[in-house]
Amino acid sequence: MKHKDGKPINQPNKNRTVTLAVTFIALCGFSFYLGGIFCSGKDSVVVNNIQMALDSPKESSGSLQVKPISFPECSLDYQDYTPCTDPRRWRKYGMYRLTLLERHCPSVFERKECLVPPPDGYKPPIRWPKSRDECWYRNVPYDWINNQKSDQHWLRKEGEKFLFPGGGTMFPDGVGEYVDLMQDLIPEMKDGTVRTAIDTGCGVASWGGDLLDRGILTISLAPRDNHEAQVQFALERGIPAVLGVISTQRLPFPSNSFDMAHCSRCLIPWTEFGGIYLMEIHRILRPGGFWILSGPPVNYERRWRGWNTTIEDQRSDYEKLQELLTSMCFKLYNKKDDIAVWQKAKDNHCYEKLARESYPAKCDDSIEPDSGWYTPLRACFVVPDPKYKKSGLTYMPKWPERLLAAPERITTVHGSSTSTFSHDNGKWKKRIQHYKKLLPELGTDKVRNVMDMNTVYGAFAAALINDPLWVMNVVSSYAPNTLPVVFDRGLIGILHDWCEAFSTYPRTYDLLHLDGLFSAESHRCEMKHVLLEMDRILRPAGHAIIRESVYFVDAIATIGKGMRWVCRKENTEYGVDKEKILICQKKLWHSSNNGSR
């Protein structure tokens, strides 16, 4: 080809252009690959590499190896250490809305890598059901409640024990009569309609303890504050409880979880800050569920003189509360003496009638209703999804039929169905039979407080339902959120990230169970930190059942030995080569360390 002036034109070499293009693309791809290798542990390339190591026959014959380590003892002043609610760190956070009592976990560089000691004189806990009425003083050696609440009969010290008479601020003469009156006001507490409850500001959990005999499973919630060790007392008694406070973050539960919520003079300012705390109760309460309030401003006509206030102020507070509840489609269900009961709307008819400009506002579609892990509270209330009508209390199967009925909300979990739910139940029934052969204590009064550290549908807990224990079902905040399914079947649980410490005191669980937790989370969470946290919350002489890939089992056993655990390796019920079970026991030891660490 020639230019218009007759000079030849140099044509580009097409082959050379193609070669350069291919080379450029290859270099880009290679650099992307290298970036994937060296990027954060959260990236999929690292996850895939770990999974390849687990699945490859060549690698499965080997295992992860770690150097033997012996962890030192923490000093005795860490005997009640709660890393994410540590009073030593309160000064870093403000008093506004009590944010200092929320979770504030230490950084990786501040974590304690030592073994939390028991108090001097610690003894194996008293067994259930006797433990509901008494515990060893040296196991929870705190006198504040005994000194400050003696007239309300929360507890009293006699000799080497604390005794729990069953009293409380609003029921000093005993929780039994208090709950009897409550059942008269809410007949649904008697027939299996009400199964799950939450007690905000629980004291020593006498309300939740009484409900256990009535077939109602309660999570008792209280912060770590000047009421020394409320949650620790509850768990020492064998009653489900967690550390928590309604402040600036949502509670770690999905929406529509609880059939009933209770506040007995819990000092939560329900009508302040635009009613944001009551909006959170509305979120976690199931449609048709009940909210119970005893104490100010209920029965203000008779009680106001003892509340250091005026009858006009209390009347105003009650009217504000009633107005706020009505604006969120609660209705007054029943009321007698010091107890008032409101019921959340059973369906969406009331919400549909609310004006768009109504106050408080309804949350828009951008607000995820089931998010509960470090999710800020917002000044709006969540309207239940009308698609899930059968998740309302009125339409659900009653307990105990509810336990094995596939919940409607299982369809919200990717890859889940009624058949996968049924298969999971059958699988765990067989596994529990095998576990009881490996650990004969399981199913006896030696095991009361149990945690399933990474549950899916709660089938582990369901298979143990007839044993004298309760199970805290933990769903990873990084896994698909199956916790609505757990609550819908009448069990209790909580969202958590095992890269952080759990919201409980030391020595509060008899048995920890995990199924493939390290296979799923080792790319994010350092193994030794997870195991040290397990050691913190496990009672001396308690056990851990660790079901894991053979790739991780030896490393777990090595770290366990450094924590003074005794572990043995067992086959699964199927005898597969790729998976093993570790049965580990934490030994009782007493501190020899008076220094700080």
From TrEMBL:
InterPro entries: Put_SAM_MeTrfase (IPR004159), SAM-dependent_MTases_sf (IPR029063). It is a single-pass type II membrane protein. GO terms for biological process: methylation. It is found in: Endomembrane system; Membrane. Keywords: Glycoprotein, Membrane, Methyltransferase, Signal-anchor, Transferase, Transmembrane, Transmembrane helix. It is an enzyme of class 2 (transferase). One of its GO terms (cellular component) is membrane. The chain crosses the membrane at residues 20-38. The keyword DNA repair does not apply. GO terms for molecular function: methyltransferase activity. Its EC number is 2.1.1.-. Its main location: membrane. Belongs to the methyltransferase superfamily. This is Methyltransferase. It comes from Glycine soja (Wild soybean). The lineage of its organism: Eukaryota, Viridiplantae, Streptophyta, Embryophyta, Tracheophyta.
